[in-house]
Amino acid sequence: MLPWVEKYRPKRLVDIVNQEKALEKVKAWIESWFHGIPKKKALLLAGPPGSGKTTTVYALANEYKFEVIELNASDERTFGKIERYLNAAYTMDVFGRRRKLIFLDEADNIEPSGAKEIAKLIDKARNPIIMSANKYWEVPLEIRNKAEIVEYKRLGQRDILKALFRIVKSEGVFVPKEVLVEIAKRARGDLRAAINDLQNLVSGGTEDAELVLAYRDVEKSIFEALGMIFASDNAKRAKMALMNLDNTPDEVLLWIEENIPYVYYKPEDIARAYEAISRADIYLGRATRTGNYGLWKYAIDMMTAGVAVSGVKKKGFIRFYPPKTLKMLRDTKEERSIRESIVRKIMKEMHMSKLEAIETMQIFRAIFANNLDVAAHIAVFLDLGDKEIEFLTGDKEKAAKIKGKMLSIHRKLKETKTELEVRIEEAEAVEEAAEEEEVEEELEEEETEEKEEEVKEEEQPAKEEKGKKPKQATLFDFIKKK
Ligand SMILES: Nc1ncnc2c1ncn2[C@@H]1O[C@H](COP(=O)(O)OP(=O)(O)OP(=O)(O)O)[C@@H](O)[C@H]1O
After folding, report:
1. Rounded to 5, what percent of the chain is helix, strand, coil?
2. Residue 54 annotated as part of some ligand binding site
3. pTM
4. Lowest CB count within 10 Å: 101, 102, 119, 154, which one?
């Protein structure tokens, strides 16, 4: 079955919705190629996922008769390929061969060394090059400077709903309107995600719509991660899939494991993928037993890159399934929101990345189960609430003990605070007294000096009387008068 995102991908530029400004720029740029090689030989389409960037490239090629050479920017093998295509003539030749347009996806995932190569290739190019990125600020500068940036907007809920209605109508299937609205809402501007959800739902029967949508709500990112892991033969890309996930590696492992047989079909490939997963499992187990969470890195490599390169994948649309052992996840939504809140607190207070914070949380779980004193200090430091403490200990009794210890830490902190305040006050009083003393001494000195002057003046009045200036009043005069 053809994936609907492909089946319903607009073939013409006019069918791309809500990106008029971007499309105008793209058209003007491609037309400039018909008058010679333009100053900016590359375009950088930048915007959120599923907003129509790839679709634009293919519709453009279709209308202006270009053949698209699509390459992945983060794959090193790409340079050699581009080099080959760069020498291809850009104008239609006598044999009627098509002009080539190079499309580099994921320009925000290029390594610095790759960036230099691509920049050189752009300089040499005689073909139009279009790059695409979600985060254009992460595209290496040397490439960004050589490209004209075209911004794509995040699609609105209404655009998405309209697209879903169109698909439902042309497939002749019935999906309740509320479900479509729900899908559109949860897609957060990503039309690809919405169309995939819809196809998932329809192919699985709408009776488990609620289940699929519930998973989609909390597991949106894990579905995307699975897509990335299983869709690529590229180890680096597969590893990157886990970068922004909220889930711990052991959970992700279950998801990947569950979906291996839906992705690979040759027995030897399936066996290879399971082999990679079991090695990842060994590393994870060792990490938990020894507390050496550095081992997670190897486990992640095995479960992503190791699985991704295990063999030939099924073509077309692949429906992913939640692991059976996690079927109860839906009921533990609250638990996951507690966990997320702990991770956020660790990130904030300890200035950590998400993965580091998740790793630290695992260490805290061991501490909370075994050392209540240290646990109480951590809880005070992170300002943890009752539910968060219970989650970390996994035991209500221990949690209650930790809370008792926290009370005494809070009390001590208060006492230390007041003690500190008293000491500060005392120190300030001593300082003030010293200052007063100094001022008095100065005053006395001034007074004696003045008295001496007066005596001198009285002694020789006649001599000085003539050219004497009136004496200017000083602050001390004023104080004396008082
Ligand atoms: N503006 C749009 N108009 C019509 N259809 C769209 C639009 N944006 C996305 N789609 C639909 O969503 C699917 C995914 O879009 P596309 O591949 O163009 O996304 P993208 O912006 O390239 O995303 P990514 O950055 O993740 O590669 C397409 O198959 C198409 O059906």
Report:
1. 70, 5, 25
2. yes
3. 0.52
4. 154
